[in-house]
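Weekly modeling sync, notes
Attendees: S.R. (lead), two postdocs, one rotation student

Agenda item 3: backlog of single-chain predictions. S.R. asked that every request posted to the team notebook include the full sequence so nobody has to chase files. The rotation student volunteered to paste the first one in as an example of the format we agreed on. Action items at the bottom.

Example entry:
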Amino acid sequence: MSEKPLIHVKDLVVSADGQTILSMPEWRLGAGEAALLLGPSGSGKTTLLHVIAGLIRPSAGTVTVAGVDVHALRPGQADRFRGRAIGFVFQTIRLIRALTVEQNLALALNLAGKPADKSRISATLDRLGVAELAAAKPPRLSVGEAQRCAIARAVVAQPRLILADEPTSALDDGNAERAFSLLRDEARACGAGLLIATHDGRLKALLANRLELAAR
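Predicted structure, as returned to the notebook:
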């Protein structure tokens, strides 16, 4: 494990309505490392991803990403940090409906402070088998197509950390393996960390490093 981890979770507690929904004494993920986040429904997998991304504030404890205490940032600072450092595949598709797929990826590059490189966008979509959908808007996409486009958006800017929440849930075997390979390869190419929350048994055979959360 790296001496300076990309993610460092320390004494984390998340509570809601007087109930503890997530508790973690300490966990680290190094730059360039990949891990599966496992656990039954209700164990806090999605909550942990959102805490790491600075989208949910913990009740106690600290979370640092690339040495930055994400919960010490002001809202605008946090938005800029996420745009530049974190690619997030949400469990519910959050592509902007009014923009084409290509424009969604271009926006991700813009938020990361990078030019809207059409060749980079095309190559990323092509690797997921959805290059022909570049001019389509999200309402026209099937659930599986939208999921693959959302994965492309998360990795196109080559962030330092990729967080993926059930990224293969709507994909058949071939596209699930293709999506996992893209996530893993993009992370490796830029030395990023990769954390995938999943119930998908197909992924368990592909990645041995695991963080398992207990049922609550």
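Discussion: group reviewed the output briefly. The radius of gyration is 17 Å.
Action items: rotation student to repeat for the remaining queue; S.R. to check formatting next week.
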